[in-house]
Amino acid sequence: MTALAPLIGAFLTIVATYALGSLFLARLRITLLCAEKAPLAFVSGAALLHLLVFVILTLHVAYVSVLAGMLFAILAAALWTGHGSLPARTDIPKSTSLIRTIHIVFAAIATTFTVVYIFCAWAPEISPDGTAYHLPLIARYLHAHGFEAVPTNFYSTLSEGIEMIFLPAYAIAQALLTQHSDISTLAGAGSAAALVHLAFLIALALAIRAYGYRVGNALAGEAAALLVYLSPVAGVVGTSAYVDLGAAAAVFCTFYFVELWDKTRDHAFLACIGLLAGYCYAAKYTAALMAIYALGYVLWRARSWRPVFVVAACAAIMAAPWLLKDWIYVHNPIAPFANQVFRNPYIHPDVERLWREVVRSYAVADRSTLPWMAFVSGGVLQNPLGPVFLLVLLVPLALLALRKPQGRRVLLPAVLLLLSYPANIQTRFLLPALPFLSFALALALEDLPLLLVVLIAVHATASWPRNLRRYASPDAWVLRRTPIRGALRQQSENSYLSEVPNYRIARFIEQTVPPGEKILATSSFADFYTAREMLVRFGGAHNDDLMDVLYSAWHTPSRPSLATVLRFPARAAQRLRVVETAVMPKADELWSIHELRFFLAGKEIPRSPAWRLRAFPNPWGVGYAFDHSPVTRWRTWETAAPGNFVDVDFGPPSRIDQVNIETSGDNPDVRLQLEEMDAAGHWAPVISQTEQLTLSPETSLPLAANYELRARGVRYLLVRDNEPGADVYAKDPASWNFSVAGHAEGVTIYKVEGVTIYKADGVNVYK
């Protein structure tokens, strides 16, 4: 059953998805070629099924009985109406014996790779993002029987249209494995999601092939389908619990329905266009560009706004739920982006900036090496497209397709989709545009069928797993073998997964950290294979604040080391604020305040419950500047800018003659001004004498950090041996009151022991 469970879950989901799409297309009375029905029905069904699963999660009734019942109800309806059967092959165009032979060769190549792909998808899931957040999030929703806020993982704010199709397959497979207690066996249900994703890859290839038949370029369609299907990036991503091939299938089928509408002007196709255009957004943000193409093309060809409104309304049905979900959970409808527009306490704008910078470059210093990595070696871009695609770059054969109207039609969406690629340069972000580029390339060579056969043969040979090992870089993520024993579970899940370092670390976490505990870490691991909650730096504002506490205890630029002292004649002030006035020369310079103190005659005025604290930006963290902790600080968490402020309303006026602003050395270009609100409600500068002081380093900072971590429910810290701070903790864990819970696989897990706190002369003392 361990081997059959993911197959059963995936099979039921795939068949029900196709059946739902068939019912939908039949309801619209749309007539399709036999070659078109299977892929278009499957992808249309996925769009509709994702919405049904979304509703189930929203209602918090995501039980396996409900999900399985939904699938069986769809299948029953399809059987009852007779719309669930696969079409007969009755529209194959006549061809010469040479072309028929080429079709047979292409079919044999596709079948061989399909067998390999099935075994790869069937094996336990080991993909980086699949085990880091795609599968952990749907497992979390299933455990909670519905959506829940996950403020410590910003990936939960991305649209999850493909994951919604994974969820019933995963739920059924997991239910069939409930007699097993080992987490590696239970998590084997994750391969059900990978098998569903493989179905999207197959549907995409079939749709490309069918499009060739539709437009009278059958050979080009088959060749283009194989160029995509055999691509190393499509092979490894399409057999993992990723979403990129699902998004690519939604993109191409949107284009397909636009073409069908343009040819027939059947208004029923407008609903299909809209639903799939909206599903592109639900599948992946970068695929949302296809909605722009669909709306623009329909407006251009129809010369009327009415069909555009139909498409837009149907697209909104698919996209709006995800916008609304993010608005409810994180107050930002397009999270994790635009956090400076939709400000919220869950995702820091500076983290968004850093993330954008990373995915735009992946630390590639020499940009001229990117084409070689994208097409051949993979490297830091993870996967190669395949060496034959160098023809697109070195010998721009695809541009020859511009001579033909059909070539121009496929290159237009390709250009539009490529506009998003610089935002994330990993190769898999080229997948939505790849079908169009492949069709153009095949179209340019269609008149030379033997040359096209040679091209596909070279592509197949170069993409074969054993051959990929010969030229792909060692760190590239590609298929390197066919895991037959792993798929059939003749090799145990634990044995198979133990070949992956992140899995071994996840198991180490399971064995070392008690259930229910939270673990603070700089980087993520195979979260799918541990039941412990990982608080990964950059995963959310809460995680960033926790890591900043640690850094403030040992990282010299982050420690409280400077004080700006402002002295002025005593006055009864009701409201004072500190304002930043300078333009920062670097984007990574934030403004921070460890402590903002007010004095009268040399004596600090204690904070009163009557005080009202405000700040811009990051009003949610302003309390850190008034908590007397040396390791917490209010930060702008975005580039400091003129007009940033921290504002204190004392309630009843308070007599003050001195303000101390304690900060760190990592914001040297900040320039501050003290202002007071006058009786008319206007801010006016306070004329003062300014003195800059250097603060003596406190020896209690590590214990203060310990206290803050435990106060926020964190009792374990996971540190890689080579990451910043590792040597500091390892050298003297006792000074932090940490104990080593375990060390393995190049990581150390520290237990954060208890620390007591008391006040002496208004200062926190840790012991």
Task: Please name the defining characteristics of this protein.
28 helices, 17 strands, 767 residues, Rossmann fold, alpha+beta
Short description:
By secondary structure, the chain is α+β, with helices and mostly antiparallel strands. About 50% of the residues lie in helices and about 15% in strands.
Any overview of this molecule?
This protein has 767 residues and is α+β, with helices and mostly antiparallel strands. It folds into three domains: 4-84 and 98-471, no CATH class; 500-558 and 699-767, 3-Layer(aba) Sandwich (Rossmann fold), CATH 3.40.50; 560-694. The chain is 49% helix and 14% strand. Strands 3, 5, 6, 7, 9, 10, 11 and 12 form an eight-stranded antiparallel beta sheet that branches. A five-stranded mixed beta sheet has the order 2-1-13-15-14, sandwiched between helices. A hairpin with a 2-residue loop joins β14 and β15. α1 packs across α3, α9 (218-229) runs parallel beside α20 (449-463) and α12 runs parallel beside α14. The chain is elongated, with a radius of gyration of 29 Å. The model has no long low-confidence stretch (mean pLDDT 92).
